[in-house]
Amino acid sequence: ILLMKTLVPATLIIILGSYVGLDGIYGISILAMLAAFDNSNGGLWLAYTGQYGDARDRGAYVASAVNDGPFFSLLFLGASGLADIPMIALVAALVPFLLGVFVGNLDPKWRDTLKPVPNIVIPFFAFALGTGINLGAVVSGGISGLILGLIISPITGGLVYLGYRLILRRGGKSGLGFAAGTTAGNAIATPAVVAAADPNFQQYVSAATAQVAACVLISSILAPILASWFLKRAGELKSEDADVTDAPPPAGLREARGEAL
Predict the structure, then answer these.
(1) How much is the pLDDT for 126?
(2) How far apart are the C-alpha atoms of 153 and 62, rounded to whole Å?
(3) Phi, psi of 159, rounded to the nearest 5 degrees
(4) Roughly how many angstroms between the first and final C-alpha of the chain, as a whole number?
(5) How many whole angstroms separate alpha carbon 152 and alpha carbon 159?
(6) Contact (CB, 8 A) for 213 and 137
(7) How do the pLDDT tens digits run along the chain, 261 residues long?
(8) 14: Cβ–Cβ under 8 A, 6 or more apart, which residues?
(9) What angle is formed at CA 168 by the lines to CA 79 and CA 61, rounded to 5 degrees?
(10) How far is the C-alpha of 90 from the C-alpha of 74, rounded, in Å?
(11) Distances (CA, A) of 220 to 47, 76, 92, 122, 156
């Protein structure tokens, strides 16, 4: 998920930026592209895979924990030379995550304590995300924001789908990959964070923020639709926790019942 949703798209965007410059194309700056493409909505992923995936898929939420926020945007812009990013900005973006990894592995009781938390918080942060979306900002993003939002789910979700299908060999369940084709709500703040690290990006912040806001809303609707369509097409649109009593009894048991009757 981290490879296909973050590293591959961000690399392609940086390559594009090396040819067209920071202004990007069609009114969409390289900053807006990175902020919209290189992260994913972990809450939606947890909610969707909690219904149709298994423990492996839910555990892959750690990819979203890594790519949420400005870290990868700062990293790729700085490493490519398109921006002058202070090292302290990268450290500040990564330290909280590494601290959590350290504490969780140092004391297993922390893992046990926090294990039920993801399912508990889904309704709360989903509500907070919805109330935090400014529809005015979505509208101000204009056609460019709409286009950017419409292509994120098919492109990045499609890449994760290919990763599920060709690398993980998940077969019919590969449609789950499209649920990762989203933009996280906190990505709306990424343009401002990047501009704070490198003032050269200040001129792009306003438009990029509006465009990313549009992507958050549109991708959160489109991604689960695409995932459900591919799962249904493969006959896998069913909960992993479905009651086993709904399944037909084994053939041997049916024969035994017939003889008893």
Answers:
(1) 61
(2) 20
(3) -65, -45
(4) 52
(5) 10
(6) yes
(7) 899 999 999 999 999 999 998 888 888 899 999 999 999 988 889 889 988 988 888 888 877 778 877 888 888 888 888 877 777 777 776 777 788 778 878 888 887 787 677 666 656 666 765 666 666 656 656 688 888 889 999 999 999 999 999 999 988 899 999 999 999 888 888 888 888 888 888 888 888 888 888 888 899 999 999 999 999 998 888 766 554 444 444 444 344 434 444
(8) 30, 34, 76, 77, 80, 82
(9) 60
(10) 7
(11) 12, 25, 28, 14, 13
Rounded CA Rg of the chain = 21
**Rounded Cα distance, 169 and 95, in Å:** 33
User: Rounded to 5 degrees, what angle do the CA atoms 189, 90, 3 make?
Assistant: 80
Residue 197 CB-half CA count within 13 A: 25
According to DSSP H, which parts of the chain are helical? 2, 8-20, 30-37, 42-52, 55-59, 61-67, 71-80, 87-106, 108-114, 117-132, 135-140, 142-152, 158-162, 190-197, 202-233, 251-260
- For residue 217, the model assigns a pLDDT of 87
CB 174 within 8 A of CB 161: yes
* 65 close to 216: Cβ distance less than 8 angstroms: no
Q: Do 146 and 216 meet the contact criterion of CB atoms below 8 Å apart?
A: no
* pTM score: 0.76
User: What span, in angstroms and rounded, lies between the C-alpha atoms of 153 and 245?
Assistant: 36
